[in-house]
Design brief:
Keywords: DNA-binding, Phosphoprotein
Protein name: DNA-binding response regulator
GO molecular function: DNA binding
Largest sheet: 6 strands, parallel
Pfam families: GerE, Response_reg
Number of helices: 10
Shape: globular
Length: about 230
């Protein structure tokens, strides 16, 4: 199944300092129908090439010479907020996972994943779904809960929350519970595209930038328990 983005193959860039691994991942993605637009073997090169090539998805190792993967992630996401970053790392250390997510990664997969799991993860990342190796999703959600528990600065000065429609609130609640767009679409019996539209509208109303911020917003308001 060729992964499509706006009617064209999903473009991907692969960043890893091990040439054999990098080439193997790039080859697997190309054979699966992805458009591999660039590869890079160190941090500074990754930032330069990502800005030049403008991929839909960046498959990124964290352990890079020259500039750590989390810094690469911060730079490229700051430059292109619509870019999706899937971290592909040998480390399942919780601190590494949380740092990657805080730097703007939308997914985190261990290198022990199978080729099929990697291809599925890149497809889902391109579609805007957060993808985590099993066991890490709960950790990330737990971290958002912890952050949400910290007092918000000058809460009294904040304007009232924008009004969301019932359907937008419903979608937001399911996003906060960790459901993928596909699962939300099936549960609410609406199309995947309609779910994406509701999420985009909600992001606009709340002045948030991505799904990670949306989940945090929802958890702050207890929607994940509702």
């Amino acid at each position: 199944m060729t992964a499509q983005h706006d009617g064209r193959p999903v473009s991907v860039m692969v960043v890893d300092d091990h040439p054999m691994w990098r080439d193997a991942v790039a080859r697997d993605l190309a054979e699966a129908g992805f458009d591999v637009v660039a590869t890079a073997g160190d941090g500074p090169q990754a930032v330069r090439r990502a800005k030049a090539a403008g991929p839909d998805v960046l498959v990124l190792d964290l352990n890079l010479p020259g500039l750590p993967g989390v810094e690469v992630c911060k730079e490229v996401v700051a430059d292109r907020p619509e870019l999706r970053v899937l971290v592909l790392s040998a480390s399942g250390e919780h601190a590494d996972v949380l740092e990657a997510v805080k730097s703007g990664a939308t997914g985190y997969l261990l290198k022990s994943a199978s080729t099929e799991e990697l291809l599925d993860a890149v497809r889902r990342t391109a579609a805007g779904d957060p993808v985590f190796t099993p066991g890490l999703a709960g950790l990330v959600l737990g971290e958002y809960r912890r952050l949400a528990g910290e007092p918000a600065p000058t809460a009294a000065d904040q304007p009232a929350a924008p009004r969301l429609t019932e359907r937008e609130t419903e979608v937001l609640r399911l996003v906060a519970k960790g459901l993928s767009y596909k699962q939300i679409a099936e549960r609410l019996v609406i199309s995947h595209r309609t779910v994406q539209n509701h999420v985009q509208n909600t992001l606009g109303k709340l002045q948030l930038h991505n799904r990670v911020e949306l989940v945090r917003y929802a958890i702050e308001r207890g929607l994940d328990d509702a």
